[in-house]
Amino acid sequence: MSHVELSSGACFSGNCSEDCCFQQAGKEVLQIERNALAQLDQYINHDFSHACEKIFNCQGKVVVMGIGKSGHIGRKIAATFASTGTPAFFYPSHRS
């Protein structure tokens, strides 16, 4: 998990309640996430559409591969596909 440096506004100087500090931190995290989501817009292009079409039109099972962190995420993607009606399984890419 990454560490995010939050601003050191008045709420963090001990001048207000703990409740206010948590609220301010929560609002800052949401703004950071909004900014990150806005940057994803550039990746919704022809490649994205092509990948969606391939998965949507797949006649067999969708094979998801990965190793390490991408493997962990791949397992979750395959499980999500399978649980929502798209036959899928995870195959670790380090196997030959």
Automatic annotation (TrEMBL):
Coiled-coil ranges from the UniProt annotation: none
Transmembrane segments: none
UniProt keyword terms in alphabetical order: Isomerase
Key word Isomerase present: yes
The SIS domain, residue ranges: 56-92
Keyword Isomerase: yes
GO molecular function, one term: isomerase activity
Gene Ontology process terms (BP): carbohydrate derivative metabolic process
Family annotation (InterPro entries): GutQ/KpsF_isomerases (IPR050986), SIS_dom (IPR001347), SIS_dom_sf (IPR046348)
Name the UniProt record assigns to this protein: Putative sugar phosphate isomerase involved in capsule formation
